[in-house]
Design a protein that fits this description.
Helices cover 47% and strands 12% of the residues. The protein is of the alpha/beta class and 395 residues long. It comes from Periophthalmus magnuspinnatus.
Length: 395
């Protein structure tokens, strides 16, 4: 029992606080911040642990990593540390703590299953779906009835749009927990999305099959007409040559022409197509006017139509603004195509069909777009343009 002398000492100690300020007390202005540095009062875990700023927390961590402690004890403490980070929504730090716990190689498989499941949750919130799925799989392998791992695995598969696998996770979980609402909801979502995914896949496959059929029909139609292409539009081997033995541009491998090779080189992206109703090919055609450095692009020129049909439309009632002298009357125009190999021009009658021009032995379609030069007959530019070139009539 305390005597009078003990009371006197206590009174003296209390009286001392009335006259002397306690040197180690919290600062009146920063006491909340200082208090938050003490582990027991912390509301959230710090991003980085500075030994000078958090000496008490460093001391606790040293206890966790004490070499005298068993791997299970260290792993358990690191798991709790990770959970604290997770609750504070510091998922990256949480994942690091769970990883450190797994490094301890605890023999407690239930604990390891929890660690994998918890780390899966951290990765899930970080958006690392594949890492989360790997961890959920590892947790399920250690503990097949781990509910959180089963749920997390189904969620990851759903996020990865692998709905078939999500269904497997849900079905596996529902065998163990048939009344779990979360698994039931996930399965309903996965089943619905899986049906939509299967339907879209069937549509895409049918569309691809249709496009392939159209492509094959188009290539056959081009081949049947004997229309030739410059070799640059087909895949080439190192042994290929631009010319055959007789000096003619090579047309070998025409059956290997791809739909891309028939695409127009124009920015419009137009390409030749086979009309299923009339069986005719419709080509993108380029008219070039070298005198004015102008051009016209016709996206759908039927092979059975003649050139005059289009020239009449282009130079009918409304003339192009660049034809200031109004010289481009359909009856006064001449058309040519160029044989680049022989540096020769072939004149094309304006009443000739496009197909007949394309079937000429010296016509080669370039970049999927037939092109023709248009000049004003008898004009000074026409005479000068043709003066240094070999010209033949289309036969």
């Amino acid at each position: 029992m305390a005597n009078d002398s003990d009371d006197d000492v206590m009174d003296a100690f209390i009286d001392k606080f009335k006259t002397e300020k306690y040197k180690n007390a919290f600062n009146e202005e920063t006491w909340e911040e200082e208090m938050d540095r003490i582990p027991i009062f912390m509301t959230k875990a710090p991003d980085e642990i500075d030994p000078k700023k958090y000496p008490e927390l460093v001391a606790l961590q040293s206890m966790i990593h004490d070499e005298d402690r068993t791997p299970e004890e260290k792993a358990e403490d690191l798991k709790n540390e990770g959970t604290s980070y997770f609750k504070a929504k510091k998922y990256k730090q949480a994942a690091m703590s769970y990883t450190a716990a797994l490094v301890m190689k605890s023999k407690n498989q239930d604990l390891n299953a929890v660690l994998f499941s918890n780390r899966a949750a951290a990765h899930f919130h970080l958006g690392n779906m594949r890492s989360a799925l790997n961890d959920a799989t590892a947790a399920k392998k250690l503990k097949p009835d781990h509910l959180k791992a089963l749920v997390r695995g189904a969620q990851c598969c759903t996020e990865l749009r692998n709905f078939g696998e999500a269904l497997k996770w849900c079905d596996e979980g529902l065998k163990l927990y048939p009344t779990d609402r979360k698994l039931q909801e996930l399965r309903a979502t996965a089943d619905k999305n899986n049906r939509v995914s299967d339907r879209d896949a069937r549509k895409a496959k049918a569309k691809q099959k249709k496009l392939l059929g159209e492509k094959e029909a188009l290539l056959k139609a081009v081949q049947d007409r004997g229309i030739k292409f410059l070799p640059s539009v087909r895949p080439r081997c190192s042994s290929d040559s631009d010319d055959d033995e007789d000096g003619e541009p090579s047309t070998r491998g025409l059956s290997q022409l791809s739909l891309d090779g028939l695409n127009s080189g124009e920015v419009t992206g137009a390409q030749v197509y086979l009309n299923q109703e009339d069986g005719a090919l419709y080509w993108p055609v380029l008219f070039l006017y070298p005198e004015h450095q102008q051009s016209d692009f016709i996206s759908t020129f039927c092979e059975n139509h003649c050139f005059l049909d289009h020239l009449t439309v282009m130079f009918g009632e409304e003339l192009p603004p660049w034809d200031t002298d109004h010289k481009y009357c359909p009856s006064d125009l001449q058309l040519f195509f160029e044989d680049e190999q022989k540096e020769t021009l072939y004149q094309v009658d304006s009443q000739t069909s496009l197909l007949r021009a394309l079937q000429h032995q010296r016509y080669f379609v370039k970049a999927g777009t037939p092109s023709f030069i248009v000049l004003v007959k008898g004009s000074p530019f026409c005479k000068q343009y043709l003066s240094d070139k070999k010209v033949h009539s289309l036969k």
